[in-house]
Amino acid sequence: MTAKIAAAAGEVAGPGVEIAAVCPDDGPAAIESHVDEARAAVAVVELVERDVRAGGSDAYVVACFGDPGLDAARELVDVPVIGIAEAAMHLAAISGRSFAIVTTLSRTLGRAQDLLARYGMTDACVWMSGTGIPVLDLEEATGEAFETIARHCREAVAQGADAVVLGCAGMTDLCHRLADRVGVPVVDGVSAAVGLAAAMVRAGVGTSKRDEYAAPPRRPVPVP
Amino acid sequence: MTAKIAAAAGEVAGPGVEIAAVCPDDGPAAIESHVDEARAAVAVVELVERDVRAGGSDAYVVACFGDPGLDAARELVDVPVIGIAEAAMHLAAISGRSFAIVTTLSRTLGRAQDLLARYGMTDACVWMSGTGIPVLDLEEATGEAFETIARHCREAVAQGADAVVLGCAGMTDLCHRLADRVGVPVVDGVSAAVGLAAAMVRAGVGTSKRDEYAAPPRRPVPVP
Amino acid sequence: MTAKIAAAAGEVAGPGVEIAAVCPDDGPAAIESHVDEARAAVAVVELVERDVRAGGSDAYVVACFGDPGLDAARELVDVPVIGIAEAAMHLAAISGRSFAIVTTLSRTLGRAQDLLARYGMTDACVWMSGTGIPVLDLEEATGEAFETIARHCREAVAQGADAVVLGCAGMTDLCHRLADRVGVPVVDGVSAAVGLAAAMVRAGVGTSKRDEYAAPPRRPVPVP
Amino acid sequence: MTAKIAAAAGEVAGPGVEIAAVCPDDGPAAIESHVDEARAAVAVVELVERDVRAGGSDAYVVACFGDPGLDAARELVDVPVIGIAEAAMHLAAISGRSFAIVTTLSRTLGRAQDLLARYGMTDACVWMSGTGIPVLDLEEATGEAFETIARHCREAVAQGADAVVLGCAGMTDLCHRLADRVGVPVVDGVSAAVGLAAAMVRAGVGTSKRDEYAAPPRRPVPVP
Amino acid sequence: MTAKIAAAAGEVAGPGVEIAAVCPDDGPAAIESHVDEARAAVAVVELVERDVRAGGSDAYVVACFGDPGLDAARELVDVPVIGIAEAAMHLAAISGRSFAIVTTLSRTLGRAQDLLARYGMTDACVWMSGTGIPVLDLEEATGEAFETIARHCREAVAQGADAVVLGCAGMTDLCHRLADRVGVPVVDGVSAAVGLAAAMVRAGVGTSKRDEYAAPPRRPVPVP
Amino acid sequence: MTAKIAAAAGEVAGPGVEIAAVCPDDGPAAIESHVDEARAAVAVVELVERDVRAGGSDAYVVACFGDPGLDAARELVDVPVIGIAEAAMHLAAISGRSFAIVTTLSRTLGRAQDLLARYGMTDACVWMSGTGIPVLDLEEATGEAFETIARHCREAVAQGADAVVLGCAGMTDLCHRLADRVGVPVVDGVSAAVGLAAAMVRAGVGTSKRDEYAAPPRRPVPVP
Hints:
The structure is a homohexamer of 224-residue chains. With 224 residues, chain A is α/β, with parallel strands linked by helices. Chain A folds into two domains: 2-84 and 191-203, Rossmann fold (3-Layer(aba) Sandwich); 85-187, Rossmann fold, CATH 3.40.50. Chain A has helices at 2-13, 34-53, 70-76, 84-95, 109-119, 143-158, 175-182, 189-203, and strands at residues 60-62, 81-83, 99-103, 125-130, 163-166, 186-187. In chain A, the strands form two sheets. Chain A has a four-stranded parallel beta sheet with strand order 4-3-5-6. Chain A has a two-stranded parallel sheet with strand order 1-2. In chain A, helix 5 links the parallel strand 3 and strand 4. In chain A, helix 1 (2-13) crosses helix 8 (189-203), helix 4 packs across helix 5 and helix 4 packs across helix 8 (189-203). Chains A and F meet through helix 4, helix 7 and helix 8 of A and helix 4, helix 7 and helix 8 of F. Chains A, B, C, D, E, F: It holds the Pfam family Asp_Glu_race.
């Protein structure tokens, strides 16, 4: 999946943008529960900390649709940090009045609701649907999985969505074929986030360090 | 702090309720950033998993005002799991029309806002304030820290709050003195959560296992 | 119905809690319109005033799902006053992300909507349904009434509700059987309110007397 | 006060509109608490029932800013029933983008908040203020009371209100003088409601009898 | 259509109210897109400017359901300026708890959503539907068009609407027949706006000139 | 001002992006009222129509903070159309939790509120302020104007804003100096929109043509 994400990111990166796609060594194999989410958040923190020690990057993208560890990562740097759910929702909201989310397991829709609220997108999202396809089954999106996802996308349009947001980084390679199939914009978070990162870097807009996202307080190590 | 929390919980537990206050071995010393929050969430997951393996409890309380790991813990059990921010907000909302939150560092107010939205309490909360007192300085709430917190509580009332929610488990022992000082209900999340846990257990209301909070999917361990 | 409510309350009361279930002498026989609601509110005020004159109680529960007279009763005392709709909604919101309300006549759902808004529960409530069963027909919940209510509860789960709130005190004795049937938490307001009352009394959280809920102004009796 | 209200209503009634201003015999002398509100609601129900028995009217106005008994009264008739808070808020919302409420005792602002939410006016209302003047002191609005109210109205404009809603039927005779003083529309609910009633009657728009506001169910009188 | 609107307005105007129905010379033939809306807004501005130069009127009604140019027109006068969508929504909200909008082309529902939000009516509107009938086809509402609209109105009631708002000035002559057919209030914006205008004029409530709606700044004509 | 906007856009465009900055021949000299807004919307429509006839562009940016004509322009093309208010708000919302808007005349803040609501940014915007500087005075931002704007930006931070959105295209050249001065991200809509346009083009996300934004219906030209 990391290779697939790297490919999608590279495709939209544009001249002068370099992508480093990294995967935590010991994160969960897939993120489809709050328990996975909690572990992934710590993994994201550690990857960003490691990258900062290695000199840092111009922007960071968290490439899981639950945007795990996004707030924490923002505390560690002053450059843009963008989640793919966040990015996809913002771009979809510009492509029309309303969007739908088509994702993997319906159990992740609760997290999606929290993110919609956090990003101001609750009203823009008019429909959400889980396809029942586990994340790891997307590794090779066979015809059947594609058809299932396409069916959900078509239903999204029937429900009044102007655009469809794909709710998993593992769907990134299906994006253009799905758009062709359903006839409305289909937004992949990886591409959206890479584009937004470039936009923010070029505009000189990083992460605010005012209060909430300032570097975390250092504390004396407690004596055991 | 764990002892203080245990004392507060014990005080309100009522007959027939037994409290086990536990602290993760390797969690952050205090939770006052999103990075701390991420680490604490994993620690909460591990503590609940360990307790379940040891036979489990009738209910769980997450005793940090950021309610870290609450959603994840809910996936692991079918009994009530209650965060102290959640509990304090619900009880405060019953004690009047509006409440304020008085907490430690203002940088944690962003997380509090997310929780208010999640629990439906955004409109009920009319004021939020950070006292600037770090969590660990609450270990021994000297006169000065108490006076600072009391001043913020009084300001909360002046700002139209019917009740005050204390935004840190470390303030639990100040609760009654603050209520006496400001003349409105002051709600400590630890006491609130213990009471709510007992209420839910007695009423036979646990955690719904319908979809989002069902046990997380088990996945084959990926071959490295 | 008063006896049924007393039984449900007693069952969850726990050690050290004493329940006095009272019914106004001249209130409406059932509360299923705004006109009934208006009359019940005055009856609640009168019952609380009488109880206060008789020495008062540690907490008050208003055992009708429209929470009639709740605000007024709060003006009369400084201890907790809890409505059963309020209590059920708060507990349901802790047992999952979302709940549904299954009630008697659909004409009462407007009042339920007002209460959802007042308590911050509009977003948490994903479905509402009237069974068409009048309150008084619940006195003896025959098999048929139970099956109708159970069918609505199952539909609630199908509509995405993590939990079901029973919208009438007269359903209190069906709660556990319904939970067994539908497999998600089913919340009865009477049990919820009794538990919340105990929680608030133990935590020392009463009704704020700051402004809105202070004792009503006494006025010279107008000369006719 | 009834005479004052009748005068204000008559002034705006226009040709062909007849006003009957009535006051319950045994309602509270003034309505400035939830307890008063509860009693006033029953009084409104009784007055409407009596009027219906006497042949009925073309429309009803509830002339207290808490709109007591409004929902109940709507159950009794199929013609328009309008509260003066409701009317004033709707008209103020048309006269500009935002309004403020200036009322008698601040303790009534909670009720005003509930009404704002019920009528969709929460966002439009940018400021609310209690003058501290009891309702009965408005009977003869001496210079001092007028100046106090005018000062609050001016502050409302400074706080960004395009218009001011007067939060008590007892202020009806001050409306035009206040508008002259502060230079923005000042809306009196009595005049607003009379105008709205005429508008609805002429447009043939009454109270919907679909479900919530259908006539209340008749029940067999319970045998004592 | 202008004649039809004039007739509807005249019918509800009441004694002492004179209606002047005017149509821009070069506005769009119908308003069923944002492009039409933009052109209509400028036409409204020009008509109001012309009327002001001719002595002005006591109130203005913008008789297109998109309320085009409403904010701009308000800058030009200090008397009431009322849009028919605005008026219909406010009156419908008083006739029951909820309403539906039945309009011409579904593509105009986006604009309706913006207006609902602007007027605080988002929650009150429980259903919206486009009939697919173009505006100009309403000129002569044959039996077929009427039946289509009536079918949508009945569906609106089934969806829980207490009242129906007609989403086009061209439907004004169908209003009473539709109300008879569906049994709930059906609100035509033209009648509603004329009534509201009379109400505001009689109550002395005009357009606030505080800041946003003050006369637009005059600027030196730029030298080309 | 057109030259200034072209410069800002060119600066952030990145390799392979070509900017054509155009100004309507007969639009208003500045846009600081709803009347100006209405006229500018028509001018935007005409410019886009003309560009489409000339072969079209890959994306369109509407470079006025009121985003005039944005919805209408979207009907005319299937590529991205982005308003600078929209772009600035989205980017600011990613740079922190909250932002403020600092603009020219306070009378334009009403329009800004409508846009915040339309884009889901009402909660993210914690403060708005008009500097009182007319648009045309920004042509040459002398020291004094800059200091005034900087003072408002500092106040924005004091009011809790993580970032500042500049509310006028005429402030685009002040953006970096202001960011240096206040120490939080300052977002210029022109730069933001150009970056977002590139992001959307690269990700293959255009304007949805589903219903609302489909090409407007063609109608027979009415016979005069």
